[in-house]
Specification:
Blueprint (H helix, E strand, L loop, with lengths): L12 H30 L3 H8 L3 H8 L7 H10 L4 H5 L8 H11 L2 H11 L4 H5 L1 E6 L6 H12 L3 E3 H9 L3 H27 L2 E5 L8 H10 L1 E6 L2 H10 L12 H16 L4 E4 L5 H14 L5
Parallel strand pairs: 1-3, 1-4, 2-3, 4-5
Amino acid sequence: MSEITNFRGDSSPADAEMRGEDAVRALIHRVGDRVRKARELKGIPRRVLSEASGVSPRYLALLEAGEGNISIGLLQRVAEALDHRIEWLLGEDDPWTSEALRVADLFRTATAETRAKVLDILAPQPEGSARRNRIALIGLRGAGKSTLGTLAGDALGLPFVELNREIEDQAGMPITEVMAFYGQEGYRRLEAQALSRIVATHDSTILAVAGGIVSDPDVFKALLTHFHTIWIKASPTEHMARVRAQGDMRPMAGNPEAMDQLKFILTSREALYDQARARLDTTGRSVQESLADLLALIRDRGFLD
């Protein structure tokens, strides 16, 4: 016989193995191509992606060339550094032509009013009921979330809550120790639990969350569902200056590329932060000016109606 088959008439194990190897090679090339395109579209130098993901520049170069058989763990780090889910890199559908992803991109770039209408159509319950009088301030550290949240809470008669303080109360230790003891995965689990507890116990509140909450799709979705979210933003220079003014020199200590990394984080998270229902730029504004802007925004958007 010219072809070896099994009893069902299928091709031989050798043929199946060859097809499997071809599929693996195709997957490696597909992943590498998507990593390269995503990095270039975001304008991220390979060295910055290396710093953010913990994957060496040489390995990233091999990966992008379709020659690196990267582990799932390392690929997850690269996906997170690019602010994409790992499925986006692995799926068979082209992320640049996929209809579902195109709709998601259109949603991210739509006006807040359009996004609100879309959510009104898709949400399983009325938004007013889900969000009540809860307001969440998102954005990177140094934008002014805690300062403005505290002052706005006093002005509006609402309790101000910091999600990280809730996590510390739950864990019985500071956030730095939570990260060291539980790791990133454990922290995210505590974050989700704390957010659920706040939703269950507060119909009216102003909440400030850590900048990285947008990295967990499920937790961020819950935040968007149950809170009127406001992106508190500032220029990279002001972000860095405010953190240093608070007495925290860690962002600059021994790290000459700290500003590049900060700009990378802002760029890579911009589409996620922009899913907030409103945004407030505090660049060049005093605390009192930003507070007045925030109170006017809350009033004009009807977040407490």
